[in-house]
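Good day; I would like, with your permission, to put a structural problem before you. A protein sequence and the structure tokens that stand for its backbone fold form the material at issue. I would ask you to consider whether the tokens describe a fold that such a sequence might reasonably adopt. I set the record out below, with my sincere thanks for your time.
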Amino acid sequence: VDSGRVFITDVADNPALYAADDNMNRLCRINYTLQKIQDKEAFYETAKGVCQ
């Protein structure tokens, strides 16, 4: 959304996630890992990703 941050709903662990330009050309794949244990009290999870 801002400063390289995005909000994604219903994400699964280890899906194919790509950054794309305005013409939908893939720029890079974003690799990330979700935590193994989820906080059931949290409204959302956070994860850091790297665009490669």
